[in-house]
Amino acid sequence: MSNERISLRMKRVTKAFPGTLAVDGVDFDVRQGEVHALLGENGAGKSTLMKMLAGSFTDYTGDIQINGKDVRLHSPAEAIDNGIGMIYQELSLARPITIAENVLVGRLPKKFGILDKKKMREQTTAILKTVGLNLDPFAFVEDISPHEAQLVEIAKVMSHNPSILVMDEPTSSLSRQEVEKLFEIIDDLKARGLAIVYISHHLPEVFRVADRYTVMRDGKKIATGGISEVTASDIVNMMVGKSMTEFYKERKNKVQSEKALVVEHITREGFFHDLSFHAYKGEILGIVGLAGAGRSEMARSMVGIDPIDSGRVEINGKLLRLGSYSRSIKAGMVYLSEDRKNDGLFLRLSVKENILGAKIPDFCNCGVYSTRHEGKTVREMITKLYIQPPNPNVGVGNLSGGNQQKVLLGKWLACTPEIIILDEPSRGVDVGAKSIIHDVIIELADMGKTVILLTSDLPEMVGLADRVMILKEGHMIGSMEKARLTEESILLAANGEGI
Residues 25, 12: contact at Cβ < 8 Å? Predict the structure, then answer.
């Protein structure tokens, strides 16, 4: 392969943090017109490697070549100028301002020193069209859906005409149909000669979109090759030394006859309508639906985060007074949000402070906070969930995505709930963290707790759920027992077929 066809070449790059060699002498290259999947667990070094390319870390050793030219990138602006486009899992969009202001940041058109709204509209509309979006450029980002925000982010990056594009978990907020649209965009970018680095923990996506793969583990490159030469099991073994078949082991059904949760005729106008269902002690109840079905909205209203118009909820035979999350927690029902960064964690606080965030009332006596039991609770969660590093004082914002998710789970496990609602509990985490989360879910059910599982990961739903309820456009349209659960049957049911 001639050098001219190599868009990106990284040679023996190394980056150390205090006490950690995050990237250890890694060679990595991407060719023009290919998708190269960069794989590994959270903490394997993938993000650090790409942050060097993005100009975020300059204190590294080794060489970086872009289109055959040696470069030293001192800032993200320099990276953009050298043709590097970065699409991170955690979006860089500012939520309180408009789409146009986000997309055109740093290059807003002006006329006589005043913002030219007409040009802003024209330029933003044209940029959004490249990813198939037809949104009002002056809509606020906080008012659009997560999948629309993801596509706005992609459009924003592509508007700088990069030659090398890094996509870090780009489908984490997209429905299956939207994922296919994104793949069509990627196919088009490949045809135009872009070099694409694709980071994802969702292996079916990797096999659909990638030409080559590189696996990293503990800061080192483990293997590189053609994606057609390996299987998903091969990739998992390279990443963690564990076979995929071990993730969903057969377990003895321990669902009890006693109902832990009874939901009757709950409605929030415009989001979900007249929903009724129940869940038993020891049951993992899955709730599935396509984007816009109302799953998260239902969960948030049930626990009192968002308003509810009518209906009733019983927990262990007692009526829950709706409209207050603190009352729900006290009654034994908690909710793990799908958006850990914005809704779940205090990123500037420590692991300890996050785990104890919902336990503060339990440690107070007559308004005075006692630290007597907090250390034991935090140690138990760190050990149980294998949170790395196992330091209760480290800032949560400095942890990998998988470890942040484990801290969020630990926060709610510390409340010893009877009912735990898990909204996309393994989204954007590596296979090792996913395995730990699954083990905890099964353990909770085996202890007689009730787990309500909301996930778009169909293998996860099939592997864990005892029963599945189907939501479509805010209405409950049916249910499926364990014996009927397959990826195909769930997808058909979510589309209103085969129930």
Answer: yes
Report residue 360 as tokens. Answer: 């503060």
Report how far residue 292's alpha carbon sits from residue 300's, in angstroms, rounded to the nearest whole number: 14
To the nearest 10°, report the CA torsion of 304, 306, 311, 314. Answer: -20
Tens of pLDDT, residue by residue over 32-53, are 999 999 998 767 889 889 999 9
- Using CA atoms, how far apart are residues 411 and 185, in angstroms rounded to an integer? 38
| CA-based nearest residue to 222, from 204, 240, 247 | 240
Q: Number of helices (H) and strands (E), helices first, in the chain? A: 16, 24
Please give the single-letter amino acid code of residue 298: M
What is the token pair recorded at 467?
């029963």
Token pair, residue 489, equals 């049957």
Distance CA 125, CA 111 (A): 19
The predicted model scores a pTM of: 0.63
pLDDT at position 173 over 80: no
Q: What ranges make up the beta strands (E) of 162-295?
A: 164-168, 195-199, 212-217, 220-226, 259-268, 272-280, 284-288
Query: What is the DSSP track for 373-401?
Result: THHHHHHHHHHHHT-SS--TTSBGGGS-H
Q: Coil, strand or helix: which one is 109?
A: coil
3 state SS of 430: coil
> Contact at 8 Å (CB) between 131 and 165?
no
